[in-house]
Amino acid sequence: MRVLVTNDDGIDSPGLTALARAAVAHGWTTVVAAPARESSGTSAGLTAAEDDRRVEVERRELPGLSDVPGYAVAAHPAFIALVASQGAFGDPPDVVLSGVNRGANVGRAVLHSGTVGAALTAAINGARALAVSLDVGLDPAVPHHWDTAVAVAATLFDRVAALPAGSVLNLNVPNLAEVGEPERAGLAEFGQVRTRIKDSDDGTISLAAVVVEEGLSPGTDAALLAEGLPTVTPLRPVTEDPDLEF
Predict the structure, then answer these.
(1) 22-26, 162-166, 241-245 — which is least confidently predicted?
(2) What is the pTM (predicted TM-score) of this model?
(3) What is the CATH number of the domain that holds 37?
(4) H, E, C per residue of the chain
(5) What's the whole-number mean pLDDT along residues 186-197?
(6) Is residue 11 part of a domain?
């Protein structure tokens, strides 16, 4: 299997490096290509910093991955997944691993996630994809258990590789030292962390992230994750709706 590892937190994220190391340890031929800068919340956007229609790509060596080609790309993760499918970083990948994201990606809000957007873009271009996120909450000072997220993700590697081309799994892992096997879960209407608009009278829109404890539907990805359980949700890339009449 030829694997591309990307993310939306940027090339310097420790979650990216941890996931790439796991891919190498699994015996996969691995290439890393990630945004040069933070690109969270970019969904499947194809924005890139261009000069004369050229996107800047810088070779980078990641810690502990001296034999793995690494690229910092001045573009969003979905753009990276798209051009990878066209051979930008060598042969097109069979599998795209996106993450490990700093923060959960659950519920309908996955629509806005750059992590999930890269996975969906990879899928519609012929790869299988796994998006991986670590539920670290809103406190940046808490220890980040990247190894836990990677260990759970690695249990799914062979299953992802065996899926039909175009398949996507979305994995969320609690930020704990030890967790159990991932449980299949449906998408929640919303997650524990939600964005709220703050009052402002200076001509700007001010946003704040808040934790909401109540109202999580039982059995959904958000509810199970709040209970300390890893969740995995199959996602369907964009397709037509044959049942809609208008």
Answers:
(1) 241-245
(2) 0.91
(3) 3.40.1210.10
(4) CEEEEECCCCCCCHHHHHHHHHHHHCCCEEEEEEECCCCCCCCCCCCECEECCEECEEECCCCCCCCCCEEEECECHHHHHHHHHCCCCCCCCCEEEEEEEECCCCHHHHHHCHHHHHHHHHHHCCCEEEEEEEECCCCCCCCCCHHHHHHHHHCCHHHHHHCCCCCEEEEEEECCCCCCCCEECECCCCCCEEEEEECCCCCCCEEEEEECCCCCCCCEHHHHHHCCCCEEEEECCCCCCCCCCC
(5) 71
(6) yes
